[in-house]
Amino acid sequence: MFYKDERLALFIDGSNLYAAAKALGFDIDYKLLRQEFMRRGKMLRAFYYTALLENDEYSPIRPLVDWLHYNGFTMVTKPAKEYTDSMGRRKVKGNMDIELTVDAMELAPRVDHIVLFSGDGDFRPLVASLQRQGVRVSVVSTIRSQPPMISDELRRQADNFIELEELRDVIGRPPRDAVQEPRSVAAAGGQ
């Protein structure tokens, strides 16, 4: 699937990858993710796309965004839009598809292989366009969740589909509960 001498770029749809990993029950270790794909080829860029709530005093994603920014990821963010739906529920909208698409199209002449971390079927025309420009495209998502997190159209369009579950041992972080469990077992045994 990968060639050592090919120029790679990663395009991570942050909310989509987060949802897919959560559906599979694990957290992504982004340092390991970057190392894994640097090992697979000559990685030129690793982009991470996410919308941020600007008016909240603390955003749970802010520490991740800051860490990624300082550790070799190109961060692409924009303010999320808050609104109230017809049922009176607070909703947040922050689609980054256009930003990701424009960046991928601009970088296409300089790369051999793009790895898209998203299952969003809206990216199928992007993948087809990149392929017409001679760029190989791998898509990372999951079909092992219920429901599957990747659209069938996107999976069929990609040159390679990489099942996120199969990357768990390489890029996954142990869940926080599992990290704390040995202490609680030890505490219970000492009573």
From TrEMBL:
GO MF terms, alphabetically ordered: RNA nuclease activity
Report which superkingdom the organism of origin falls in: Bacteria
Q: Name one Pfam family in it.
A: NYN
Please state every residue range assigned to the domain named NYN. Answer: 7-165
Query: Mind telling me what this protein is named?
Result: NYN domain-containing protein
